[in-house]
């Protein structure tokens, strides 16, 4: 699994002009699922993202996690995180998971975050979405469960 994680003061996602997910202070996570991903990848990503210490403490140091600040989470599916542009100019998405498998893992990710007591909003899998955010910092973190980067 791959994620682009952004620390935000607010974010929302719209489908057909309607807001389907909206948060205040927390994390916006663009989540992609690869063809080789399994439950171990899912568990790793949930633990890593919820535990990221990228919120400032009383001394202004990034030392607090989403759980520590009781922040919110907005998860947006994004298969393009598996776009391979090493050859040519048109991305290849051949290592992205089959949409049915990816949607199931996306929904499991959301469920596990909610089970941890995190207010979790989401986009609509496979929809054409418009995402708006205010990146605080800016802070943007890339995570790959296979530790490719």
Structural write-up:
This protein has a single domain, classed as D-tyrosyl-trna(Tyr) Deacylase, Chain: A (3-Layer(bba) Sandwich). The longest helix has 17 residues, at 99-115. The chain has helices at residues 39-51, 66-69, 99-115, and strands spanning 2-15, 18-23, 26-32, 55-56, 62-64, 72-77, 119-122, 129-144. Strand 6, helix 3 (99-115) and strand 7 form a beta-alpha-beta unit. Helix 1 (39-51) crosses helix 3. The chain is built from three helices and eight strands; from the N terminus they run E-E-E-H-E-E-H-E-H-E-E. The protein is of the alpha/beta class and 149 residues long.
**What share of residues are in beta strands?**
35-45%
Q: What would the CATH topology be?
A: D-tyrosyl-trna(Tyr) Deacylase, Chain: A
- Tally of separate helices: 3
Q: How would you characterize the largest beta sheet?
A: 6 strands, mixed
């Amino acid at each position: 699994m791959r994620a682009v994680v952004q620390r935000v003061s607010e974010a929302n996602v719209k489908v057909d002009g309607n807001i389907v997910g909206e948060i205040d202070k927390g994390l916006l996570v663009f989540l992609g699922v690869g063809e080789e991903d399994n439950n171990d990848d899912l568990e790793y990503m949930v633990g890593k993202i919820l535990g990221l210490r990228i919120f400032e403490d009383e001394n202004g140091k990034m030392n607090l996690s989403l759980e520590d600040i009781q922040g919110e989470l907005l998860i947006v599916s994004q298969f393009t995180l598996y776009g391979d542009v090493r050859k040519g100019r048109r991305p290849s998405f051949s290592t992205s998971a089959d949409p049915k498998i990816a949607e199931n893992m996306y929904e499991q990710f959301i469920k596990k975050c909610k089970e941890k007591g995190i207010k979790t909003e989401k986009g609509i899998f496979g929809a054409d979405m418009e995402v708006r955010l205010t990146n605080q910092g800016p802070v943007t973190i890339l995570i790959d469960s296979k530790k490719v980067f």
